[in-house]
Specification:
Elements: H1 4-11, E1 24-29, E2 36-44, E3 47-56, H2 59-72, H3 77-82, H4 85-91, H5 100-121
Antiparallel strand pairs: 1-2, 2-3
Helix pairs in contact: 1-2, 2-4, 2-5, 4-5
The structure holds FE2/S2 (inorganic) cluster.
Length: 123
């Protein structure tokens, strides 16, 4: 059902947790399943220098969140905002059709975290 990359991302705990010194936090929920994802970003000079996530979500939500974090760490804020759920799914060699909606959480949470950062750091 799941690709090897999904299974690997699902079991990788390195991106899980609260980022104490985050300066942008985004939380989103999926209305259909009730799952929740929170993404923490630490942004310096337009670069995402660190990021972590916490979720009450399914395996696909965990795998896509972890992969999204890997994809945006060390990259610009603009790159992170341009990342779509399709990009994340492609990176994972696909998801079962009924789990595609889970990948949207990561895209939305990143956008919210950047919005949070910008609301605090722009006059
Ligand atoms: Fe809720 Fe996957 S079933 S995020």
């Amino acid at each position: 059902m799941y690709s090897d990359k999904v299974m690997k991302a699902f079991t990788d705990q390195s991106n899980v947790g609260e980022l104490e010194d985050a300066n942008g936090i985004g939380q989103v929920g999926n209305a259909s399943c009730g799952d929740i994802l929170r993404i923490y970003l630490k942004i310096e000079n337009g670069i995402i220098v660190d990021a972590k996530f916490q979720t009450f979500g399914c395996a696909a939500a965990i795998a896509t969140s972890s992969t999204a974090i890997d994809m945006i760490k060390g990259k610009t804020v603009e790159y992170a905002l341009s990342l779509t759920n399709s990009d994340i799914v492609t990176e994972l060699d696909g998801l079962p059709p009924q789990k595609i909606h889970c990948s949207v959480l990561a895209e939305e949470a990143i956008a919210k975290a950047v919005e949070d950062y910008r609301s605090k750091h722009q006059a």
